[in-house]
Specification:
The protein is mainly alpha-helical. The chain has 62 helices and four strands. Helix 38 runs parallel beside helix 40, helix 52 runs antiparallel to helix 55 and helix 58 packs parallel to helix 60. 40% of the residues are buried. It is found in: Cytoplasm, Cytosol; Membrane.
Length: 1371
């Protein structure tokens, strides 16, 4: 039954509407609109195609007529559209089923654009039949319709969202039932179309499918538009975007069946000679079936789809193919295709001749027959055939479908043809009287009637129903631009309260839809427009509509705050400006007066003549007021260039009047926006805070009028939202933290102070809340204080931060948890401050924290202990007050005690065995602590910090830190494992002695003028050296069993002392080494003794190469009389010495070399002395390997001394320089004597007592070698060339030479050494003496012959001959 009823509507009612559509009677038009409204409301799902036809014919035709409309008709249409737009489901269905349908017109888009054209009125300069009153009525009504449309879209969206929320709470069975109730009821309580006909060609579609269809439609129309300009480009575009296939068949089908194509362009494309268009043309022609058609009928049918091009060659190609196709469909019609080709040309010429008004002399039938003689393969076609063809063409012109349409714009033409409405619009546009009706066009009416019947027989296209709100995105993309333009223009140009109220309502609904749908660009455009219409940036021009815009802004903020995001900035800017104007209205001073020095005189009495007692003269004429009254651009935040001009009385009166309008907006409304922030969702509150921070920074950065409105509101907002879940609050604080840092570093001191005080208020409030263990939010909350403290260049700000932190900590100490990290970071920055009062203020609080509140520091987080230690270490470096540094060191000792006693109350075993320990200096200790040392990560920063302090330039700090460091290690070392002790020695203890033990030798390569004589690089004094050595030895001896592997390092430290050129450290090193070995005694293994002597040997030999380079720098100095051979040196020794022989640079070099030589000799002898002392005390504990090392040590020192004394020319230069400088020369002879004496004594002692080393060392041979060298040295000194150096064949002449006093002194100095050597040789056993006497007998003979040997030597020599040589001879 329902189907029959719909068919009846189609057959009778729709046809009746069609027949009467051209009547101009108002009553009939109104009845048609009423009927159409009922069809649309109740039967649209079954009449999709019919409604698609009648919408343009009844509604859009009238709506789009802007210049010459019928007032009553257009008002009727506008009222109808208002009713339609109040039904949300109808609006959605129109867009879904027409604008998203490839085969339908964009009805929703045309409605919106038509309403925009009406709202804007006739174009400027155009002629219109409307009166001004009628035009204004149209404008207001069209705006009303647009508001209804966007309001309905919002209502549908809200309904679908609510249904979706309900569906989440329902079972799947119940949710399916809800889908049938999707549509708001129609007007007057009638059931909706979907309730009456739920199953008539309806299907539910998702937004994604419709998006694809709409995108396809848009792309297709873009290709059609491009084709209508450049056919080849259009086809390429459509193929590349896969809107049509790439084969000629697909393109031909597109050209034949697609509406909206320009027929002329189709003809041009089909006539192209390129390969692909030619294939398309052939395919296009072959798609026609001319079978059984008369030739005239066939050519008329063929030319309906396109217009023949004007170029003859193109026509030729098309007609040639047409003739071929006709003959193929009708093989018996002509003898060949040539006949059809020529006849087709004749028919085209006849059609043009008969129906072109420009042709005066028309072609007759006889002319036509004559023109076509002999075309059928030389024969004539039947004259009757040609006559009938002539009559057919003359009576009925061959023309395209579009040729019957009245001229219209191209876009309308495309849409009309798209729906097959060309004939309908042609019918409607004909000027006919009511009486004439459509009589003469009965044929056309019957044609449309047949179309209705055929549509009724066809299966209707599906009617789509959408419940997905995403479809609104596509609707908004279509309508937002026209709506924005219509609302903005009307609001700007009209002062009618009803019209402006409607526009503001439209803005509110548009913001609601775009915000909820997440369409940022569109949302921001609407919000910005409303914000600009508030005119708060130029209050002197405000009107009531602008105040209404302010109210709309506040409503938007409260109603749609969850979805505004970036648009909040515009809203909050408006609120800031409102507050500014209200303050000006109250006569209150601007915020700038608190930040800058006033530039105006004191305020005078109120200007009662202005009738606004709150204003004062100073207020009215200050720059801020002038800027507001004069106005600026919406985006301007600073005072204009003319702000200094004096305001006129008229301007002031207008401004006061406008401020009275703002009284409609109270503080409650303003504050409500901020209080309402508590109800915003998590994402929205973050966006709100970001925008508020941005506005506040803009206020504060104003160079002339800084304001704190935003800053105070930020504090309020933080208070309002402090109870939010931690996840959201953390995101809020990330934004606020950056804000407070930025403002805290402001160049305007007062602004920065205000910001820091605001942050303090928030922090105090936040510290009232409990924080659980292992959370980090307190630390994040206090981080802005840290960053500003570290980066601010302003003393006042840094002092304020220290005071704020001190106050917060001391008043809320029990609540501070993770915040300790930031607290210590602030105090660390304060400790390094350049201002003494800041350092002392911070340390005062730090002292109180450590003394009284230490347990709170590590109550929930043990790592804060490290932060505390680093802070104290920074205080130790304070250069303002040594008491602060000493107290800080004492507190470090206290921290160590608490750490050792288990003062870190939680997580004692956590995080201790990581792969590496990060030291205080940031260097990673690579050693793995796999033995679970307690609190390794806590000990390291403390010990490393104290280690660094030992090199402090202040003596008291050095000593204190040294004592505290080793006291801590000694007191608590029992807690440390072997692995951790190794780490301590490597990273804590040995670095203390690096300036000494790590003394660099590269100064040997430096020019003497750049090297200080006291070049050890250490700032320690003798007392510090002594204390350092004692501490090291005590610690090492105490924990020897655990740390004995560090013995080489400890010995290196002590030998480094010995290496020092300063007497104090060297003596300390000797005493230390002796004490170390004495205290350890038998606890040292043979291998460890060997290590000790190897260290001594290494120290002795490692300095030799560098020293010899320094000594040989004297070779570069040329000195007269010292360039001869060594044989002439003696004769030159008595020359007069003058400064002229040395320039200043040479004297400086010589001074440096002498100093280095003395130091070097002293060090070498000291090492030998240490070795001798150790040997004497512990010889019973030494192994043969250790004795061998000692032997090598003595030998190397002696040989080195001998090598130095052979540099005779250098020594002579040094001697001469010392004489000039009047300083003593280096004791070269003494060095050589002592070195050989030590070596000789050692070997003699071994010879007597060291039987156990005979297997390792040939002592007798070693002893003979040394004695032989001693005798040779003595003979050379006495002027006697030993037989050792004589030739076996030549005898040198012997003559007596006088000796200088220096030589006599040298011989006397060497006498005891020679006597020791002779005694050593005498001490050899008989067999040994007999075996070795051939090696040294010639030396004994030379001694006998020498004229300069002393009596003691002669006596020792005679004893030797008597006791040893004589026995050999006797035997």
């Amino acid at each position: 039954m329902r189907g029959k009823f719909l068919n009846a509507i189609k057959q009778y009612l729709c046809l009746s509407l069609l027949k009467n559509s051209a009547l101009s009677a108002m009553a009939i038009f109104q009845l048609q609109c009423s009927i159409f409204m009922n069809l649309l409301s109740k039967f649209r799902s079954g009449l999709k195609k019919e409604i698609g036809m009648f919408f343009p014919m009844l509604i859009l035709r009238v709506l789009e007529n802007v210049l010459q409309p019928s007032f009553l008709q257009k008002m009727t249409v506008l009222n109808l559209l208002d009713k339609i737009s109040q039904d949300p489901q109808i609006i959605i269905d129109i867009f879904v089923n027409y604008d998203c349908d490839v085969d339908a017109s964009n009805i929703f888009e045309r409605i919106v654009n038509g309403l925009l054209k009406t709202a804007l009125g006739p174009p400027t300069g155009s002629t219109t039949a409307l009166s001004p009153a009628q035009d204004i009525t149209f404008r207001h009504e069209s705006v009303k319709c647009l508001v209804s449309i966007i309001k309905s879209m919002g209502a549908w969206m809200d309904q679908q969202i609510r249904i979706g929320d309900l569906d989440l709470a329902k079972s799947p069975e119940s949710s399916s039932a809800a889908e049938s109730q999707l549509i708001l009821n129609g007007e007057e309580g009638n059931a909706s179309d979907h309730e009456l006909h739920p199953d008539v060609n309806s299907e539910f579609s998702d937004a994604a499918t419709l998006e694809q269809r709409r995108a396809y439609k848009i792309e297709l129309h873009k290709g059609i538009s491009l084709f209508n300009r450049k056919p080849s480009k259009g086809i390429e575009f459509l193929i590349s975007n896969k809107k049509i296939g790439s084969s000629p068949e697909h393109v031909a089908l597109f050209l034949k069946n697609t509406a909206g194509l320009d027929e002329t362009k189709i003809g041009d494309y089909l006539g192209e000679r390129e390969e692909f268009p030619l294939k398309v043309m052939h395919t296009y022609v072959d798609s026609f079936n001319f079978k059984g058609m008369d030739f005239g009928e066939a050519i008329r049918f063929f030319l309906q789809g396109f217009r023949l091009p004007g170029e003859a060659q193109k026509i030729d190609r098309i007609m040639e193919k047409f003739a071929e196709r006709y003959c193929k469909c009708n093989p018996s019609s002509f003898s060949s295709a040539d006949t059809a080709y020529v006849l087709a040309y004749s028919v085209i010429m006849l059609n043009t001749d008969a129906h072109n008004s420009m042709v005066k002399e028309k072609m007759t039938k006889a002319d036509f027959v004559r023109n076509n003689r002999g075309i059928d393969d030389g024969k004539d076609l039947p004259e009757e055939y040609l006559g009938a063809l002539y009559d057919q063409i003359v009576k009925n012109e061959i023309k395209m479908n579009a040729d019957s349409s009245a001229p219209q714009n191209k876009q309308a033409n495309s849409f009309n043809r798209l729906l097959g409405l060309d004939g309908i619009f042609n019918l409607v546009n004909w000027k006919q009287s009511e009486e004439k009706a459509v009589g003469a066009n009965g044929l056309l009416i019957r044609h449309i009637q047949e179309q209705f019947k055929s549509n009724s027989r066809k299966s209707e296209s599906a009617y789509h129903i959408v419940t997905d709100v995403a479809i609104l995105r596509f609707m908004v993309e279509v309508c937002w631009g026209p709506m924005l333009a219509a609302f903005s223009v009307t609001l700007d140009q009209s002062d009618d309260r009803v019209a402006t109220t409607q526009c503001l309502q439209g803005f509110r609904h548009a913001v609601h839809v775009t915000a909820v749908m997440g369409m940022q660009t569109q949302r921001d455009a609407f919000v910005t427009s409303v914000a600009k219409f508030t005119y708060l940036h130029c209050a002197g021009d405000m009107k009531q509509k602008n105040v209404d815009a302010v109210k709309a802004i506040i409503s938007i903020a409260i109603e749609d705050g969850d979805h505004l995001y970036e648009a909040w900035e515009h809203i909050l800017t408006c609120l800031s400006r409102i507050e500014h104007l209200q303050l000006l209205g109250e006569g209150a001073p601007s915020d700038a007066t608190f930040f800058t020095t006033p530039n105006f005189e004191s305020e005078e009495k109120a200007l009662k003549t202005l009738g606004f007692s709150s204003f004062k003269k100073g207020t009215l004429q200050n720059p801020a007021m002038v800027a507001v009254v004069r106005g600026s651009s919406y985006d301007s935040t600073s005072i204009g260039v003319n702000a200094s001009a004096i305001l006129t009385t008229e301007q002031i009166n207008n401004f006061i009047s406008n401020l009275n309008l703002l009284d409609q907006i109270g503080n409650f409304e303003l504050n409500h926006v901020f209080a309402h922030s508590q109800r915003l969702n998590g994402e929205a509150i973050v966006a709100f805070v970001k925008a508020l921070c941005k506005v506040s920074i803009s206020e504060l950065q104003s160079p002339t009028d800084p304001r704190v409105f935003g800053l105070t509101k930020i504090v309020e907002i933080a208070h309002y939202n402090m109870n939010r879940i931690r996840l959201v609050w953390s995101r809020i604080w990330n934004v606020l933290s950056d804000f407070f840092v930025s403002v805290g570093l402001s160049e305007n001191l007062s602004v920065a102070i205000f910001a820091m005080d605001s942050l303090r208020q928030l922090a105090m409030k936040f510290l009232e809340r409990e924080e659980l263990a292992n959370y980090n939010f307190q630390n994040e909350f206090l981080r802005p204080f840290v960053i500003v403290m570290q980066k601010s260049n302003t003393t006042e700000i840094r002092e304020l931060i220290v005071r704020c932190i001190s106050q917060m900590v001391l008043s809320r100490v029990s609540n501070v948890k993770s915040g300790w990290k930031s607290v210590f970071m602030v105090f660390t920055a304060a400790a390094a401050d350049e201002r003494k009062n800041i350092v002392l203020l911070a340390f005062e609080t730090m002292e109180k924290i450590v003394r009284e509140f230490f347990p709170y520091i590590t109550e929930t987080e043990t790592m804060t202990f490290t932060d505390c230690v680093r802070c104290l270490l920074t205080f130790t470096n304070s250069r303002f007050n040594s008491d602060v540094s000493l107290n800080a060191i004492a507190f470090l000792r206290f921290c160590a005690v608490r750490l050792a006693d288990g003062g870190l109350v939680c997580n004692k075993k956590s995080n201790l065995d990581g792969p590496s320990v990060v030291l205080a200096n940031g260097i990673s200790d690579i050693q793995d602590h796999t033995d679970n040392d307690d609190h390794v990560s806590f000990w390291n920063p403390l010990l490393s910090g104290l280690s660094k302090l030992t090199s402090d330039p202040r003596s008291a700090i050095r000593k204190s830190s040294l004592e505290v460091l080793f006291n801590i290690l000694k007191d608590h070392g029992h807690l440390f494992s072997y692995t951790f002790w190794n780490s301590i020695f490597r990273s804590v203890i040995f670095p203390v002695y690096n300036p000494v033990s790590g003394k660099r030798e590269q100064d040997a390569h430096c020019p003497p003028s750049s090297v200080s004589v006291h070049n050890d690089g250490s700032t320690w004094d003798s007392e510090t050296y002594s204390v350092a050595a004692e501490c090291l030895i005590d610690l090492f001896v105490t924990f020897f069993d655990v740390v004995r592997s560090q013995l080489p390092g400890v010995v290196s430290v002590l030998t480094g002392f010995i290496r020092s050129p300063v007497q104090g450290p060297a003596s300390t090193g000797v005493a230390g080494l002796v004490r170390l070995t004495g205290d350890l005694g038998s606890r040292l293994s043979e291998e460890e003794w060997k290590e000790i002597f190897l260290c001594l040997k290494d120290v002795a030999m490692s300095t030799v190469p560098g020293f010899m380079k320094v000594l040989r720098t004297m070779n570069k100095i040329e000195v007269p009389h010292i360039s001869q051979a060594s044989a002439d040196l003696e004769s030159s020794s008595d020359h007069d010495l003058t400064n002229d022989e040395f320039d200043d640079d040479n004297l400086q070099t010589a001074t440096y070399v002498v100093s280095r030589t003395k130091n070097h000799i002293a060090m070498q002898l000291l090492i030998a002395q240490v070795a001798t002392d150790l040997y004497k005390k512990h010889q019973l504990s030494l192994s043969a390997a250790s004795i061998k090392v000692l032997t090598e040590l003595y030998s190397s020192i002696a040989l080195h001394a001998r090598e130095m004394n052979r540099e005779s020319i250098l020594l002579k230069k040094l001697q001469k320089a010392c004489s000039i400088l009047e300083i003593s020369g280096p004791p070269m002879v003494h060095f050589e004597n002592e070195s050989f004496q030590n070596h000789l004594n050692f070997l003699q002692n071994l010879h007597l007592h060291g039987h156990f080393v005979h297997d390792e060392i040939n002592l007798e041979q070693e002893l003979v070698d040394v004695c032989e060298k001693v005798l040779d040295i003595y003979l050379n000194c006495a002027g006697s060339v030993s037989s050792f150096h004589k030739s076996d064949t030549l005898s040198a002449p012997h003559r007596k030479l006088p000796l200088s006093s220096a030589k006599k002194e040298e011989i006397a100095a060497r006498t005891s050494l020679v006597i020791s050597a002779l005694q050593g040789l005498s001490g050899l056993k008989k067999d040994s003496f007999r075996r070795y006497i051939p090696r040294f007998f010639h030396l004994l003979v030379d001694l006998v012959r020498s004229e300069h040997t002393s009596g003691e030597v002669q006596h020792a020599l005679s004893n030797m001959f008597r006791s040893s040589v004589g026995q050999v001879i006797m035997d």
